[in-house]
Design brief:
Largest sheet of chain A: 4 strands, antiparallel
Shape of chain A: globular
Distance between the termini of chain A: 43 Å
Strand order of the largest sheet of chain A: 1-8-3-6
Oligomer: homodimer
Radius of gyration of chain A: 19 Å
Order of helices and strands of chain A: HHEEEEEEEEHHHEHHEEH
Chain lengths: 253, 253
DNA sequence: GGAGGGGTTTGACCTAAGTCAAATTCTCGT
DNA sequence: ACGAGAATTTGACTTAGGTCAAACCCCTCC
């Protein structure tokens, strides 16, 4: 009754809850020069914030708040979003273990966006003052920041393309593939995972209505491209999904 | 016959064709430490590219090409865009005097987007090798790069908001206000200017069809919000335009 | 375990904006 | 100045996807 392609009944196995090792973390190259791994706890205390665990729904920072810490996600996931005036929000990204948050506030020293934990999430928080002191001395750190920001810009550009030029099916297909790729990079299954974000979040991120997300997922399911049950997703036909996304996930040269 | 609010007849006065002084250029803080202003031409030659003038339609760089130069726009305007598969493109930005192009290629060392002159445009081109040599020694340069990239990210986020959450009228109103503000910063008129980009470019940038751009502009004209004749635009009611854009241009704090 | 509530799904309806096509107006090179 | 071609505008028609509303399904908390 639960063979490949069949509808998913009952509850699916939950994701493993592993955290990234420091070695795999996007902030590693920032932390390493600070000697944070060597157990220098007096320094560690001045750099790290106390609260390192956020529950589902808790905020890492508010939009407009002064930049105090850079956050590296150790485990869990976070959404970032911009307030869009009328109480609505535009989700600008979903972030997983190993990613760094807060860099987009570096020049204004104020967070342009807000960050909220999607599930229980543990982070390393790096004091911005400390960070800047050290960065001034250590050009390698700055070069890392530039790399991270550059990658950020590239991701934004892909999203721009998605929002400007793709219909709902293409957006969702590209989204699922991107998720799949990012999870695979973290050694999770590329074809079977739990979404930590709601349909509404996905819709906001992709610029489509919540209901449209549901409808397109239903259509994909009818066509045998994937199976969903609530937040659990199994991708059944990656080839077809890529065709729908028109190779947005493909990397040239 | 040509009073305020009236239709524009015949040809409108052309914009003044001033270039920014080095002092007002976004690359100034990058150039200054290199001593480029002091007439050190032997250094200048190793850093600057020969061709400094691009005609309308000429490319500054192609998508996928290796990063060779950073470009600072001295005068004129440039559009950047991503190839979107099917031969179509997504315009990702319009750039004016004082802005720096190419930074989004810094970590990949390949241009993710393509840049094309919208009119006769003069630039300073800074060799990336030279730049990186110098940046390694001079942390101040890197800090400037970080600032410029950070501002870039913020602009992208505003655009994301526009593409994800606004209808055609709101997008166009916000676009015109943003143009107006940027031109005013460069000491042009905030209410009267020539667009250097086509309706198609605007539509691509805003994620709407060329025809929709025309129709919305026509509607604005009927309502007395602005007057257009071809690429010449006069904003007649900034208040109303801001209301339509729902204060996207407003700066909090 | 039952009530409550948030997230999800589905249906009906409607509108903003896309597409196709043709007319018109400029621009630019010769 | 002229002609070719590009950009813009307008119209007619179509449709993807938004909105509103109701049902449903879990999950949590008491």
């Amino acid at each position: 009754m639960t063979g490949p392609g069949a509808t998913i009944h009952r509850r699916a196995p939950l994701r493993a809850c592993a955290q990234v090792a420091c070695h795999d973390c996007g902030m590693y190259r920032l932390c390493a020069p600070l000697g944070l791994e060597r157990g220098d706890f007096s320094l560690l205390d001045t750099v790290l914030r106390r609260k390192l665990i956020y529950r589902r729904g808790e905020l890492l920072y508010r939009a407009g708040a002064p930049l105090e810490y850079l956050f590296a996600i150790r485990g869990g996931s976070v959404k970032t979003y911009l307030p869009a005036g009328n109480g609505r929000v535009q989700v600008t990204g979903f972030h997983f273990a190993g990613e760094v948050l807060g860099l987009n506030a570096i020049d204004g020293h104020r967070h342009p966006s807000e960050a909220q934990a999607l599930e229980t999430t543990s982070v390393c928080a790096l004091s911005i003052e400390r960070f800047e002191q050290l960065a001034r001395r250590e050009p390698a750190i700055q070069r890392e920041v530039i790399k991270i920001m550059s990658a950020d810009i590239r991701r934004h550009q892909e999203l721009l393309l998605l929002l400007g030029k793709r219909n709902a099916e293409e957006r969702l297909a590209a989204y699922l593939l991107s998720l799949s790729r990012r999870l695979a990079e973290r050694r999770y299954s590329a074809t079977e995972f739990n979404l930590s974000m709601s349909r509404g979040d996905i819709g906001s991120y992709l610029g489509i209505a919540e209901e449209t997300v549901c409808r397109v997922l239903a259509r994909f399911q009818e066509e045998g491209v994937l199976a969903t049950r609530r937040r659990y997703v199994r991708l059944l036909d990656l080839g077809r999904l890529r065709a729908i996304a028109r190779d947005l996930g493909a990397r040239p040269g």
